[in-house]
Structure prediction request, 133 residues.
Amino acid sequence: MKHRQNIGLGDINPAAKKIAKQLKGGEILALIGPLGSGKTAFAKALGKQLKIRHKITSPTFTLMHVFAGRLRKNKPVVMYHLDLYRTKNFAEVKALGITELWGKPQTVTLIEWADKIKKYLPKKTIYLYFSHD
Ligand SMILES: Nc1ncnc2c1ncn2[C@@H]1O[C@H](COP(=O)(O)OP(=O)(O)OP(=O)(O)O)[C@@H](O)[C@H]1O
Ligand SMILES: [Mg+2]
Prediction:
């Protein structure tokens, strides 16, 4: 998978489909872009592809939501969805325990506003840049 991709508002659903097909487990997706550029919409669309039935909403106040889903060939996966908009520092992210989980084979981690913790993200992180056009 390309480690840097630009996604416009009109491309969210096809991009989520394409990326879902390429997921093997262990991916960390940094969702970066201005307010209302489609980061949460992408999480919803990807969740649908991973057969998550639960309604996906922004974890703005909870910081992180956890969902059970399926990759291709019905392989179980846990999707972590973080929104760091209100996060003050990396210690708050670490306190969630996510840094011990992200990157593990049976997980996919989506991080809205990941640019706030850019220097702490693993090397293999895939950067998805969202924009209004
Ligand atoms: N599948 C879709 N394709 C295109 N636009 C969508 C889709 N789903 C929702 N939208 C619209 O796109 C906008 C993106 O909102 P969204 O909440 O995804 O942005 P965001 O980047 O998560 O913003 P924030 O920084 O506040 O978290 C909303 O106005 C929403 O109504
Ligand atoms: Mg959002």
User: Anything to note?
Assistant: DSSP finds three helices and six strands in the chain. The helical segments are 12-22, 39-49, 90-95. The radius of gyration is 13 Å.
